[in-house]
Amino acid sequence: MTRECAPGCRVRASGERIDRRCADSAMPNMPPRFQSLLLDIHARLLSAGTDHEEVLDGVVGLLARALGCPAAWIALADASGTLHIEAVGGTHPQLETLPGQALPHSKGLRGETLAYRCLRTGKTAQARDAVAELPITLPPGATAVLPLASGAAPHGVLGLRAAPGRSFRQGELAFLETVATHLAAVLALRARVAAADEALAHRHQAAAVFDSAMEGIFITDLNGRILAANPAACRITGYDAAEVLGATPALFKSGRHDQAFYEAFWASLRAYGCWRGEIWNRRKNGEIYPELLCVSAIHDDSGQAVRFVALLIDISEQKRIESELARKAYYDQLTGLPNRGLFEDYLAKVLARARREGSTVAVLFFDLDDFKYVNDTLGHDEGDRLIRTVAERLAACLRSEDMVARLGGDEFVVALPGIPHMHDAATVARKLLDSVCGPVALGTDEVYVSGCIGIALFPDDGDSPDLLLRCADNAMYGAKELGSNSMLFYRPEMHTRSGERFAIGSALKNALGANEFFLVYQPQFRAGAQRPVGVEALLRWRHNGEVITPDRFIPLSEEKGLIVEVGEWVLRTACTQGRLWHEQGFSDLRVAVNLSARQFRERTLVPMIYEVLEETGFPPAALEIEITESLTLSNANSAPNILGALKEMGVGIAIDDFGTGYSSLACLGRYPIDTLKIDLSFVQAIGRDPRVEAIICAIVAMAGTLGIALVAEGVETEAQRDFLLGRGCDVIQGYLVGKPMLPQEFDAHFASGLLPH
């Protein structure tokens, strides 16, 4: 507050009589009788030796008598916002029963009562024929309810019921609003000193209020020079009392307010005798802070303004909370990255600029693989740590004009404005994948992070933030079908596939319970044998008469967390069928079951396999678990223990798709592998690519040296079979020797002793 906005009304701390000209100054347009009444009300409000209830009863009694009202009341709000009657005055015989009662919230079909409307809006509420305003029955009549507000919102109301046939005139309402303003201020001060000794004289009580008030109080002369400052004012401003006495409020001037601000301030003081609002001031240490300031003028007996009193409240914490709420509304709390709302706002602005400039904008949608596993196995704290690490790595790869945001869970989006060409977006996407994907240390564990990115372009794929995000999301799911650490640009046909994915995903939830899954078994033959030495169990799904291929539903099962339950069903079904075949004479038949990455990460995997073998009676030595090389790499810490436990149980371990993953030789030396399955991509290159043939020969030689069995997958021609047999791989699997078949087909073929083709 500067000298230009010297504080306005001073509440007298002495017992001096307040002059009648106070009313003239406060309300110059009011009739003399209101000036006198205002003087009497001031006297009661500031009277010494009178308790809280007596003061309020006296005030409403004066108002009721002066205005001829049968009822007047003051009600204060509790913490829940319910108004309780504090004081009453008037002639109605039932008024004395009201103190302590709650005011009614509503008046039936006519909506909320005037009191709660006033409390809610902070404005005077009135009606010509109000009813149900009090818990007693009054004849209909004009009613006015005025807010008692000394802070940001009203904390009570002043209500009056006019005599029958009478209404409140504008001058009376203006007078009542002045009374309510002063009444509210005094109520606030009295609340601060409720514990003070009520037997003290008025002078001592005022001094105690001044010294102990939580609000800062300055008392100044008419020139704005500070005459007194309470401890709270010194604490708020950082100055000692001796430093501010004799100074003007210009000492605290922040420089944030212009001349118009101060002109409005003085206009309010001249018109209403007070000013209330927010102001920026400066502390002694130079810090600029927000302050809620209420300035009022106090007059002497002759009606002349003699002092100003300013009540100030430091609202820095309130503003900080408001700022924090705004931050929470636009930023992700875990990573500090922008959230969806802020990202979409930013993207809308970027797109608008791109339309004007004719430039391209890329939206990248990034999703982690198997994040749920980290949460489930390592705990949410480690999951949060992983998300923060990914966020940091993504942000470190981008330009200042780019934005990365977290949508939630393990989903992130990136906006790249001004991308010259498609390949530039692909370059950034690959840079992001290279930065994020790889090992991450989480406590004592190390997790191999992988993910996929979908890319959508403006204007080719969409012209709104929502559409571009959906297109990039669809492209991301397409990338996931290509495998980990893949990226893919959006194509229009992905929209149809997105709808199909949704339909399949919804149906998957009920597939197991509806018995829609079934197994087929593809035989494995040793050279020259007419009976299979093993079978691989393969999952199929029949839904609404259609057999849905595994590539359409297995990734969705992984994504939706259904694969663990489905995988257990596959194992139990395959072992049950294997035991039946053993009982039918196929005692040497081995059954191979594929294990998904999600299953492998379950802590209950080994106990589950043991339980299934016990329940079905299938020999552990006849079961072979197939895993991929990449699975062992991404679970480098847990894989040795899991595979070792299975080996101790007697279960065989096979590496599927051998030669297509990373660290093939390392996994052979580290894990107890029984079988290598040569991937069909190698087999199909036989006769066409001598280099691949050389790799096959190397795999066969290495397996022979290590004593590891071999199975070649995808054998479809006799030339492929002859090449493999000639190089020492004598167990083959593929359509040349047997397609995947149902158990009854399998039984029919081998019961007749025929080799299926």
Give average pLDDT, whole number: 85
Tell me roughly what share of residues is in helical segments.
Answer: 40-55%
Number of helices: 27
The helix/strand class is: alpha+beta
Spans of at least 5 consecutive residues with low confidence: 1-25, 195-201
State the major sheet.
9 strands, mixed
What is the third-level CATH name, the topology of the largest domain? TIM Barrel
Summarize the structure.
The protein is an alpha+beta fold.
Describe the structure.
With 757 residues, the chain is an alpha+beta fold. The protein has four domains: 50-192, GAF domain (Beta-Lactamase, 2-Layer Sandwich); 202-320, 2-Layer Sandwich (Beta-Lactamase), CATH 3.30.450.20; 331-491, Reverse transcriptase/Diguanylate cyclase domain (Alpha-Beta Plaits, 2-Layer Sandwich), CATH 3.30.70.270; 517-747, EAL domain (TIM Barrel, Alpha-Beta Barrel). Helices cover 43% and strands 22% of the residues. The chain contains 27 helices and 26 strands. Strands 18, 19, 20, 21, 22, 23, 24, 25 and 26 form a nine-stranded mixed beta sheet that branches. Strands 2-1-5-4-3 form a five-stranded antiparallel beta sheet, sandwiched between helices. The protein has a five-stranded antiparallel beta sheet with strand order 7-6-10-9-8. Strand 8 (274-282) and strand 9 (288-299) form a beta hairpin. The longest helix has 23 residues, at 170-192.
